[in-house]
User: Fold these one by one.
Assistant:
Number 1:
Amino acid sequence: MRVACPVFPSTVKETFVSTTVPQLSPENTSVRSAIPRTILMCRPNHFTVSYRINPWMHPQIPTDTSLAVAQWEQLYRTYQKLGMQVHLVDSIAGLPDMVYAANGGFVIDNTAYGARFTHAERQPEGPAYMDWFRDNDFDVRVPQNTNEGEGDFLLVGDTILAGTGFRSASDSHREVAEIFGREVVTLNLVNPSFYHLDTAIAVLDDSTIAYLPSAFDAAGLAALERRYPDAVIVTETDAAVLGLNSFSDGYNVVIADRAVDFERQLRERGFNPIGVDLSELLRGGGGVKCCTLELRR
Ligand code: ARG
């Protein structure tokens, strides 16, 4: 028997939960439970696209900062309704990508491994996020190696999946293994459109992931297939709207509302997908997960 167990106020149910009874395949009968998370976000008051450090960014096309803020607010409210504890770090003028809080660090066991950004345009964000961690009583580890935080480090159960190829240096993977004392699995990213690991893999619960196979080299793909034989495989179409760039509490999965096949697959597996529109922030090359840094005390 399977019992879906949403842990959030009924108002959210009315707004988000489909009345459709999920069609469960026989192998997916596990009980899903929502564990509300503690997260850090940054309101995109200064969001724009004024430089190009990934293929999604087109500085010649004007952006609408107020639309970005309105869409971000929708994500923020969604998390609050799901019972998450949302902290905010102040946005800084001149740092338009600071909204992508996932890149600000990687936090487990109250220890915050700071970010050291690849591109000069984002480098001041590293110290800004580390200041926030210090002010909020995290044990901050100043990074020795280039890394972009939870953009490239994803915790799945006790294993850390670590991306490299475009941003985080593989030396940072060793540093993370030493700091957190957990197994670190290096995965090479090969498609510049999926330049951070969190654009190519979604963590759904402690043992379930979703991913885009073509984003990885042969060794990375083999590792994923061996470790996660039941993973959700997303379509190129869904990945192209950053559908994988999503945030799960173990039952509710906040995703890009345009990732329709991913939404269907999540429902079939007994998850509760919740679509949001972050189209303006997509112009910076980021989505739901990029705007979300998990704080694990
Ligand atoms: N414009 C930002 C960059 O290229 C987007 C970061 C997206 N963040 C993420 N976690 N994938 O650095």
Number 2:
Amino acid sequence: MRLAVNVDHIATIRQARKASEPEPVLAALLAEQAGAHGIVCHLRGDRRHIQERDLKLLRETIKTKLNLEMAATEEMFNIARKVRPDVVSLVPETPDEVTTQGGLKVLGQEKQLANFIQKLKKAGIRVSIFVDPDEHQIAACRQVGVDLIEINTGRYAEAIKEKEREKHLEEIRQAAAFAHKLGLEVHAGHGLDYHNVQPIVEIREISELSIGFAIVARAAIVGISQAVREMLALLER
Ligand code: PXP
């Protein structure tokens, strides 16, 4: 199981004071040195955390894979074409959300998405869609031409009652098996932390997890290197 570390919230700390530190790029390099297999950042339309400068610096410096989360807009396409991340993950984005609210609704916008994905692929970028564990949406992801998907683990992570949590976990298991059968590479993420990640690690069809908030929160106490190493230890199968 590979670990991709999302460094958005290093930038959140910096932007709280509109200051020049902490640097997301420094956190990313330390995360890589601690063994992370990839770095993720989300360039939002409102630029609340990651800035275009951060994205460029990440592209220039990191040695693993850069995954840019973004909305499917022309503005973001032009940035992605210039910066050329290894992967673009398409996510839904609404201005007032605290964090991404659910997967992208692919059904109903297949044509626009297929065109958008084709343009990114022509620019040499692999494309992923952040999607809920729903077979109809996943089948539509295949149809619009992505090579990989990231299954939204948010509802599993947020569930309080054991029964509810188990239900969402089962949905993720089924969705991962379904996507794998369709020939898609399967990643997962959102809301994963040191306490809830283990059952997700056991799902063999999932090859990579994207984790941000929990690692940055722990990094504030123990440092980014240790926070990444502790998560990597949990990801060993
Ligand atoms: N995957 C996607 C698509 C996301 O939008 C986010 C949050 O930016 C994550 C994974 C990481 O979620 P978290 O910060 O809760 O680990």
